[in-house]
Structures are given as structure tokens and as C-alpha cells.
Amino acid sequence: MTNGASGGSEPGAELGRARWPEVGGSVLAVPLGATEQHGPHLPLDTDTAIAAALARGLAARVPDVVVAPAVPYGASGEHAGFPGTLSIGTRALEQVLVELGRSADRFRGVVFVNGHGGNVDALRAAVRLLRSEGRRVLAWAPSGRPDDSHAGRTETSVMLRLRPDDVRLDVAEAGATAPLPELLDALRDGGVGAVSANGVLGDPAGASADDGARRLDGWSDDLASAVRDWLTHDES
Q: Would residue 8 count as lying in a domain?
């Protein structure tokens, strides 16, 4: 497990800790998360914590990457039936991302590291507009199994690696375990609560910190490879 994936990147790789004369022509990684329910056992900032860890993993692997403070709110309307969920919606999120991209022109490019699937529509629209304006932007998200899409074994394992004290395994339980494509119609009509009473889409059984470390490393490697390819393509 590298320091970057577990949260130990150098201070110089964090934009929020820099002074303005220290900010040069780096690539800016913007973690994009959410504040939403993650079952009875995971914290509401799970997506944000994972996106931030992956951005730090990128900075540990690719030179001259700076990690911006994470965007902690996203399009989470499907989780609105659960207390604690805060959502700014797709249109507002799109505008936030567009303005962040426009304000980052002093950087070589911007990589949005997305930790929440509900942000995808806003992210695609924002990236399309920013690219049409001539800006260098990349969007990336970790891959996962369709039957383990929310607060299941994958996210539970990763949070056991990142913040074990915030994981309540004593109340962890399975939710809807059908593949996400099979649940989408009901989910769109009635939100996550219509398909899973506890808010879990998957089964956290068998989660472990070791599994979380492997997943973080694999994702961080994939992200770094995608960014290297993007930079090479854009500069050729």
C-alpha cells in the first residue's frame, strides 16, 4: 500500500496547504464526492473520502500533480429519503464543475476524480463544455461490480483501510444484491429506499482493510495510467 493511496501524500501536493507563489503549472486533481447515506455502517462522506484518497494516490504516482480540496456535495437526490443526505443536484453540480474548470487555467489541466455515480451526468456535461472551450480536462471514476455499487463489500473494505474508526461492522448488513441495471427503473421512480430499506446496494460481508488496500492500490494505478495516457495524447 503506497502512502498516496492511504492518505500520506507530501504537503506540496495539496493545493489547500500551498501559498499562491508556490502554485505553478501542475496538473490539478479535483476529488468529487458526495454527502449521502451509506447504509447503517458507513459515514456519509464515504464517497468524498475515497475520491480524495484516490487523488492523493495519483499525486504519489505521477509527478507534478496537485490535489485540490474535495467537492463534498454532489447529485444525490436518489438518497434523499435517508437522513443526513445533502444534494445540490445535477444542474448546480454541472455549473460548479464548469466554473472550477474555468478558474483553473493556470494549471496544465484538470482531472476530476469522481467517487459518486450520481455525479456522472453533471460531470459529462461539464467536461464536454470545458473541452469545447479549449480546456484540458479529464474525468475518471473507479470501476466496480454492478451487484456491489453502494455501501457493500467494496466501499466497506476501502473505508476500513482509510478510516476504520468510522466503520460500524456491528450493524453492517446486506441490502439489495441484484445488479444495479436491474434496479435502475425502481430506483429512478422511488429512490434507493424503494429497493433497499437500509440504503445498501450490495453486501458488506467479508469486507477487510487488506481488501480495501488492494482496491485502493489498483484504482490508483489505473487512475495514474489514465492520466499519463491523457497527458501524452494531449501533448503529442
A: no
Say if CB 133 and CB 144 are below 8 A apart: no
pLDDT one-digit tens code per residue, 125-179: 999 999 999 999 999 999 999 999 999 999 999 999 999 999 999 999 999 999 9
Instruction: Find the domain containing 45 and state its range.
Output: 23-235
CATH of the domain at 77: 3.40.50.10310
Residue 226: C-alpha distances to residues 37, 106, 235 (Å): 30, 22, 14
In terms of C-beta density within 10 A (0-12 exposed, 13-18 middle, 19 or more buried), how is residue 233 classed? exposed
| Contact by Cβ (8 Å): 73, 118 | no
Q: Is residue 1 part of a domain?
A: no
Residue 193: CB partners within 8 Å, gap ≥ 6? 81, 82, 199
The predicted model scores a pTM of: 0.94
Give the three-state DSSP class for 140: strand
